[in-house]
Predict the 3D structure of the following.
Amino acid sequence: MRILFATVSEKSHLFTMVPLAWSLAAAGHEVHVASNPALTASIKSTGLTAVPVGKDHNLHEMLTENRDSLENPLSDWSTPELDRHSWEQVLMKFKVSVMFAYQTYNDCMVHELVDYARHWQPDLVIWDPVTYAGPVAARVVGAAHARLLWCIDIYAKMREVFLARLAEQPEERREDPMADWLGGILGRYGHTFDEEVVVGQWTIDQIPTSLQLPLSLRRVPVRYLPHNGPSEIPDWLREAPERPRVVLTSGVSARAALGGTFMPVADMINTLGSMDIDVVAALPPEEVEALEKVPANTRIVDFVPLHALLPGASVLIHHGGFGSWGTALVNGVPQLIPTIRYADWWNKGTSLHEAGAGLVVHASELTAEVLRESVERLVEDASYREAAERLREENQRTPTPHDVVPVIEELTAEHGR
């Protein structure tokens, strides 16, 4: 088969695709990865074949300019529940997301992606959950298509809420920003909109079932395998820590997309530095420069592959990004997530809290006392490690990317041209 992966130019989104892409390639399928030109070098660094399409999006610039207003009721998708949203509320959320996020991500690449799909004729398109150009291209050429999830599925769940409220409205009040936008693009190619374009013909889900939202979609669970890009193991990682190792990362992708972190990193380093622990903090140069001093128990690094660092860790502190969250799950490490209600960050934190494997706190409420008490709880209370270990075991029982290749082949034959 010819399989086209489609993602917007976000390195963290690409990295979640790499293990499955290579598993499909190793099974004898042709695999190409299409994205905005800005991601071309990153795709090539994985050894996969890159297809640059369209122009680069400017969403990062928009988010950076408006980062102080990112957390607001119009962009808060953290509670995708019917009883939490009126028709007016959920309609406005979709209007804002379509106008400021989905169109910005996709309109600059969708037509060239369609052109490439017409040229290459893929049998299957596997798309990132915000890369709606993927299902559009698949529909135009008659290919099967599936979402590959790296998130708690707030996107499909909120769509369920939207459709339920839409069905309650009289005809004259009905409107659908997603259908209007995607239907308009599809209409240019002689096709019409339906819900498959929003949620895929099936969903390849890297989230453990026990942590995922309940949905009626066709779901193919797959084990998350961390991919950190080109990296090396530093010598000091060969030595076991003498005290509990607490790892802090402010999030490479979040910093790039939002122009910084929402965590009070300098204050956190000061607090952690006063505790009887060993600290490894992955920080960019600008955050290191803002530190008054580096405590004696703290090692500052620019980058260390988390899949190599976390096996010896007692706690991971991060903002809620999938790479950090998923890699901690793989290694059975309890997590502390100081975050905001943006994307699915808050949902990742609450899912761990409910599973007993971590704690979540709003970044604005992370005082020195809260940080100290949270880390002490996660280190000293064995129940957190035990719950994290149960999640690790659940992930280990989930089929690997290699294991799901035959399932993907069958579903492609079922849904394709």
